[in-house]
Amino acid sequence: MKIITIFSGKGGTGKTTVASCLAVMLSREKNIAVADCDVDAPNFGLSLGLKEKDYSSFIKIRASEKAELIKEKCTGCKKCLNVCSFNAIKWDKKNNIPIFDNLLCEGCGTCGIVCPENVIKLRKVENATISVGNAYGFGIVSGQLKMGESGSGRIVMEVKRKAMEIARKENAELILVDSAAGIGCPVIASINGSDYVIAVTEPTPSALSDLKRGLKIVNHFGIPCGIVINKYDLNKGFSNKIEVFAAKNKIKILGKIPYGKEFVDALVNLKPAVVYNKRFEQLFKKIMDNIKVFYKN
Question: Which of 9, 144, 166, 227 has its CA 20 to 30 A from that of 121?
Fold first, then answer.
């Protein structure tokens, strides 16, 4: 089973549009599963027209921890008060005990380490939901981090595990991972373990700058990758700069997608562009042909 991850250093480059189109096209050749790993803002299912009622199961995840005090055993020594890097501890003068702010607490455990009475414990908290659905004949696993909670990287790993489980059950040959944008924990967790990475960018200075930073993660894991330039014809001069960068670093340009209002219309109508207008199929067929060596076996 192969894992192909689609990421972009910058948001708004069209990563999920590319991912949804490739998923539909690939599913016509192989059994696939999709992991939507943008757990802060999962939109892959939405791009295919899925609504909450279309998901068959919802799994509550406890992948984060919060500090909790055993009040009756606290001696009020205040050693925990100033050690929190997240300013999550305040002091209750009336009861002479610490108060932990659940929204600020990251569950690092420092307060528990310095507590001489060992009365500060870490408890597991529900911080996300994983949803399982199906569209266009393939399974989709999506993670949604609860508002104000942390642990997005851990949730991504849980989403990928569930996608692997479904892929094995359905005899899928390929898992497509739609990563978050940027270079943070969810992106690192998405890219780790991949067989190939598709980097989606656009012809702007900020997109190229963020692409370079994102590719450092890919290179760290030693994963082969290629680049898709979306909306390339909005700034052909800068698209050429991206191609020069790719050639210099021996990265293949997998495809160049022109700007078109019909892509926007497809998003508005909650359909993949290759379904909304079949003339887009050839664009994505070229991308598939360029990565076929990484998923055909």
Answer: 144
Q: Which two tokens stand for residue 149?
A: 């909670």
Residues 117 and 161 in one domain: no
**Structural domain count, the chain:** 2
Looking at the fold, whether 176 and 229 belong to one and the same domain comes out as yes
Q: Whole-model pTM?
A: 0.86
Phi and psi (nearest 5°) for 231? Answer: 55, 35
Q: Within 13 Å and on the Cβ side, how many CA atoms surround 180?
A: 24
Q: Could you tell me the CATH number of the domain that includes residue 82? A: 3.30.70.20
Q: What is the per-residue pLDDT across 83-107, written as a single tens digit (0 to 9) for each?
A: 999 999 999 999 999 999 988 998 8
The three-point CA angle 25-135-294 to 5° equals 35
Angstrom distances, CA of residue 254 to CA of 82, 124, 243, 276: 52, 43, 11, 22
pLDDT exceeds cutoff 90 at 1? no
Query: Containing domain of residue 200, as a range?
Result: 2-62+128-294
What pLDDT, in 10s, does the model give residues 38-58? 988 888 998 998 888 888 878
Q: Cβ distance 120 to 52 under 8 Å?
A: no
